[in-house]
Predict the structure.
Amino acid sequence: MAQRILIVDDEYSFLELEGIVLSRAGYEVVSADSPLKALEMIAQQIPDMIISDVEMPGMDGFQFIAKVHENPATAKIPFILMSSRRVFPQDRIRGLDLGSDDYLTKPFSAEELLSRVKAIMRRVSQAPSAQPLPQGLSPINTLTQYMDSLEKTAKHDPSVPPAASARPSPVPLTPSVPPPSFPQSSPSPPPSPVPSAPVSSNALDPFGVFKEMDQRIQKSERLAALFVNLSYFRGYNMCYGFPKGDEILKFTLDTLNSANYVVAEKQDFVEHVGADNFIILSVPGRASLLAQFIVREFEKGIRDFYTVEDRDRGFIEAKNRVRRMSAFPFVSIVIGVATNETRNLTHRGQYYQIGHEILEYAKTLGGSRYIIDRRHDTPGQP
């Protein structure tokens, strides 16, 4: 059965264009020229996704998404907001805070629209709650439910770090430039009780990080594993070349080592495990401070690796995976943290899967950020 997408826009030309593009891709498309009409349609049949313009008379897109999310039955509908005006950081932040999954600027290409719709649909279909749970594991909330709950918790619990909230502020693009087509990612499936490492052990064992992790697990030590990745690093390599890319890798490793020196007093284990991937082994109580330090220092220095022209423009142009010219934002650092503070993790593979699950979700939000997994294995725990 085709997935149903509701498009809401007071401009008929965009309703028609988006309808044609999505229908040809196999989606069932319905449309409304106002949020009030859209709410009536949602009451009759809940769509699988909503794409809404922001600037509409009577009720704007921000008010519309807030209204939709008031109802528990429709609160989890994936949402894409669109705007024909220049997108300022506060617009994106407001949209994300209200629960929007993405934000598009008109005009946009058919390829960009389809790419973002497919990425969100894929992420929803692959959410942990939609997958059968491995034997022996307790039920866990989906990532989207978890991220939403973090926002509510952060308002009442001062121990929850702001940067770990569900909708951290993305690093803004230059306001005068429409956002380029960003590649999207989807979260990995939930961890199995004793999974094997998704990456070849031959690639990681020489660095000792897995041996170190195994030793800490065997000793039942409190452990936080920070999985660090550079977003859009491939685009940078294609544009500036591999020697310049190596400089960013060195800068990243230096930043991680500085965090270990300043925050952890050299007590943590830092390793570059290949390509643009890094791992830090720490303790739960220090993970948030480490991640905050890394994100802050990385953002301070990353723009120095770009030309003045690219810095002014706010993005770079390079060939994508199908060798077509595409726009890429600046390289950002993303951190997914898995800990045994609230979960019984007995195998390094579980840390790896949970950390990368969170990491991939964080990537879809854009910009440099970190997210710590704070879910519980025990049903009913917050």
Summary: The longest helix spans residues 242-262. The chain has two domains: 4-124, 134-372. The chain is about 40% helix and 15% strand.
